[in-house]
């Protein structure tokens, strides 16, 4: 009788723990969903007012198209039980496959869907102000259906069939799986689309200021908030040790963002003689992206070190890409997500409490982190190039010169986001 009662109690406790975990993942997914608003405000604030409506439409469609395509196809490719092409991607039987329907796992589908949409929307800001809306929609659909899910299947199913998981690769919440993939796609897109009119004159980069730093700052605060769900939710459970794990991840995330902003602030202050607003905001984002891979593997000191490095590197990277490579990225997405996504993943090899070089590791983890992150970057860059090159040669990537000068809002959507008398871009 006592044994039966204990078994009943154990089952009840297990059920409660499972429900608490599902609730935490759902709430975290809602926070990540809200990040789409942050990306929208950030991109609007850092660019010209005449393209604000176009940015709104791209971010809304990233979420809308990504939600449908990931549900219909992407989830099965990323998390399916059957390997295809020697493990290059996955597929699934009908009970958990295409057009996903598994009532016991809806919360995981939702959580992974908003991550997929995040990867897609990184591209939006890097090619703002000169890209055809129709072309962007097609690329966003392909990225959320194939490009992101295929590479995601290499690690996040956390089984022996995921080759990077087997290799010992660590990416807790997606510095490489999400951010470096989006950053690499953004790099290729920005190169193929080309710079905005007037960005480079006689080979020299010209500043094209964003029209609303308040929007940009609000966007960063929303992203900062949403990142607690992005990283904390990736614990994928709540209760007992998982509660400690998730909350330590949240503290590490906050510390890295804070020191990233501080590092960018003082570095630009010393470099330019002014405390640069946009670089400071991007410093916070750089810290967030950098710690995303290692937030569950490092302590607070490691989080501070990663955020500090990323906060400085993002400034140098934005300058280098803009002035030396002459690649026009209005919001710094390539540097924030691509460069710092790679850097944050690699730095785990130094700061991880288990296997990090600074904690007695042999250097193996550092090597795995490096080639694992590079695999994501190369895949996203090559796949994006193929898709975008085809689109460029068929329907085109770029709007006409007149449409760019007038603004995409009027030509692509037939409306202006602001009344004409307050627009500063005419």
TrEMBL record:
Which NCBIfam families does the record match to this protein? amt
**Which Gene3D superfamilies does the UniProt record give?**
Ammonium transporter AmtB like domains (1.10.3430.10)
UniProt keyword Membrane present: yes
Could you list this entry's UniProt keywords, alphabetically sorted.
Ammonia transport, Membrane, Transmembrane, Transmembrane helix, Transport
Origin organism lineage: Bacteria, Pseudomonadati, Bacteroidota, Flavobacteriia, Flavobacteriales
UniProt subcellular location: Cell membrane; Membrane
Mode of membrane association: Multi-pass membrane protein
Q: Which family does it belong to?
A: Belongs to the ammonia transporter channel (TC 1.A.11.2) family.
Q: Which residues cross the membrane?
A: 21-42, 63-89, 109-129, 136-156, 176-193, 213-230, 250-270, 277-294, 300-321, 333-353, 373-391
In terms of InterPro entries, this protein maps to: Ammonium/urea_transptr, Ammonium_transpt, Ammonium_transpt_CS, NH4_transpt_AmtB-like_dom, RhesusRHD
Predominantly, its location class is: membrane
Q: Does the keyword Phosphoprotein apply?
A: no
Q: Which domain of life does the protein's organism represent?
A: Bacteria
Q: Cite the Ammonium transporter AmtB-like domain residue spans from the record.
A: 23-418
Return the protein name: Ammonium transporter
């Amino acid at each position: 009788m006592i044994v039966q009662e204990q078994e009943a109690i154990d089952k009840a406790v297990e059920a409660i723990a499972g429900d608490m975990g599902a609730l935490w993942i759902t709430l975290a997914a809602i926070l990540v969903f809200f990040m789409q608003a942050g990306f929208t405000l950030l991109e609007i604030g850092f660019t010209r007012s005449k393209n604000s409506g176009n940015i709104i439409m791209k971010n809304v469609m990233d979420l809308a198209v990504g939600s449908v395509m990931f549900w219909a196809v992407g989830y099965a490719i990323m998390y399916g039980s059957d390997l295809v092409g020697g493990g290059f991607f996955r597929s699934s039987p009908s009970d958990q496959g295409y057009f996903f329907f598994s009532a016991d796992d809806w919360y995981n589908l939702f959580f992974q869907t908003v991550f997929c949409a995040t990867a897609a929307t990184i591209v939006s800001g890097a090619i703002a102000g000169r890209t055809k809306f129709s072309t962007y929609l097609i690329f966003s659909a392909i990225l959320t259906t194939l490009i992101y899910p295929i590479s995601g299947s290499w690690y996040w199913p956390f089984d022996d069939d995921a080759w990077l998981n087997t290799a010992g690769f660590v990416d807790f919440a997606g510095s490489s799986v999400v951010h470096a993939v989006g950053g690499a796609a953004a790099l290729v897109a920005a190169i193929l689309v080309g710079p905005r009119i007037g960005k480079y004159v006689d080979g020299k980069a010209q500043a094209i200021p964003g029209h609303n730093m308040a929007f940009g700052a609000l966007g960063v605060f929303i992203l900062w908030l949403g990142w607690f769900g992005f990283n904390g939710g990736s614990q994928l459970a709540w209760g007992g040790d998982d509660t400690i794990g998730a909350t330590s991840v949240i503290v590490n995330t906050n510390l890295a963002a804070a020191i990233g902003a501080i590092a960018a602030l003082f570095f630009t202050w010393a470099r330019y003689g002014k405390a640069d607003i946009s670089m400071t905001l991007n410093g916070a984002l750089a810290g967030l992206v950098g710690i995303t891979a290692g937030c569950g593997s490092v302590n607070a000191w490691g989080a501070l070190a990663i955020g500090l490095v990323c906060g400085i590197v993002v400034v140098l990277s934005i300058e280098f890409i803009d002035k030396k490579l002459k690649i026009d990225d209005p919001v710094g997405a390539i540097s924030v997500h691509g460069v710092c996504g790679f850097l944050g993943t690699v730095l785990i090899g130094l700061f991880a409490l288990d296997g990090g070089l600074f904690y007695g590791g042999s250097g193996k983890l550092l090597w795995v982190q490096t080639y694992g992150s590079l695999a994501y970057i190369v895949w996203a860059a090559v796949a994006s190039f193929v898709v975008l090159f085809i689109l460029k040669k068929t329907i085109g990537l770029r709007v006409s010169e007149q449409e760019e000068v007038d603004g995409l809002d009027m030509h692509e959507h037939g409306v202006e986001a602001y009344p004409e008398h307050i627009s500063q871009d005419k």
